[in-house]
Structure formats: structure tokens, C-alpha cells
Amino acid sequence: MIPVMTMEDIHDATETFARYGVPADRIFSEIMRARYLDYVLFLNPANQQYGISIEDLYDNMKQTAEKLGMYEGDADTYVRVYTLALRVDPMVFAPGVSPMTDEMKALVEYGIERAEKSGKTVLFSGVESYLPYAGRLWDKLADKRLAFVVKSSLWKKRLQLLFPRCRFLLPEDLAHDEVKYDYIFRGTGEGQGEERQLLPLLAEKGSMDWILPYDHFTASGDIPDGIRNDVRRDGRLSGYFDLAMGER
Fold first, then answer.
1. What's the CA gap between 39 and 73, in Å, rounded?
2. Which of these, 131, 184, 185, lies nearest to 156 by C-alpha position?
3. β 181-186/167-169 pair status
């Protein structure tokens, strides 16, 4: 379970990482490494049953150096780094992640609640608009076949390391996705065409909640016209809400 961290927790964790030889700008890399190693190493049934040695953990850490850099401390200290990295919320230490508005938090919580009550296949799109909630989504929906759509190939790589049991797609991957989803949450973001790619991915009895800037739906042009026609043709629109987010 990923903890909710207070400012004091974040400060204490940052100081502890520093004592272990991990400066603030390296913390996120060590969290990605630890979560990746935890997944890969414990795919092995023998490791699940008997655990792993300090030396094996350290050797496996070295094998990730090309991708995530080298940890310069000794094996005994790396065990402490690994253990701490697995106990913190990774997104607290992620670079370039903006805080979420209260409105966005409420919408994602609504999406989580809807996903929990749906079938097994779940997709969350527009993830950049709610990155701080990535860990909570994983915790709350761990029993689902969970997929995410991200715009950035960098964030696709980062999140795949943090949550290796999930699927991560770029918008251009959607046209080739063969999974039918029982629930889709479409967050905010750029790229109007993605909505039309998501509709065909719904399972026969699936549902989608779709956060759409008002002008994307009301404007004239090929994409807005296509979106409106798709919704009308399918006859699947069950309701809509008007809400303000920030200045919009």
C-alpha cells in the first residue's frame, strides 16, 4: 500500500535518502529501480519462498545501471535504499509533476469508484493531468487488468518501471489495441482525436467517463463533428455534467 505522505514525511525521507548517499535529484530514479527490481526478482518462485540475499539484490541493481544510473554505495547500504524506496509514494519525488486541483482529485476518485464496480479491464487516459494519483490508482485497482494512456514516451517508460504489472500506451498505440475495456476514464489533456479512438475500445456493456473541454464539443470542424456523431450514432450517452476546472 502506497502511503499518503505529509510534508514532514517527505522531509524525513529526503534526509534519510541523503544519509544513504542518494541526493534529492536521484531519489525518483532509485524509487523506479527498487519497484522494478521488486517486481522482477519476485517473479521467481524461489525468491518468493526464500527471499533474496543482499549480494543478489546488489548484483541485480548493477544490471540496471545503464537505464537508471549506478548507485555508488555498498551492498548493505543499498538494501536500506531499496527498502525505503518501496515505502514512499513515488510521485511525491517525481520531477515536473504539478499538484492536482481539488476538482481533478474529486473526478479521479469518482473514476476509481466507477472502475472498482466495473469488470476486469480498465483504462485510464489523460494520465498527465492526474499523475500524483498514479500510485493510488494502482493501489485501489490492483485486482483489475489496468492500462494507462500517456502522451509522453518518457512518462511511459517511467511509469512502466514504477508499475510493471500495468500496461502503458501512447495515443498512437490505441489504434492497435485489441483489448475491450469494461471501464474507461478519459482525463483532460490535449489531443482531441483520442476520444474517437477510445470509443471503439469499449466492451459491449462497457462505460466511459469523459472529461472534455467545452469548446472541444461545441466547436465546429471535423473532429468535434465526428465526436458528436459518434456519440449520437452509438446511442450510449447516458448523461452529462457541466463543471468548472480552474479558469475553464
1. 22
2. 131
3. unpaired
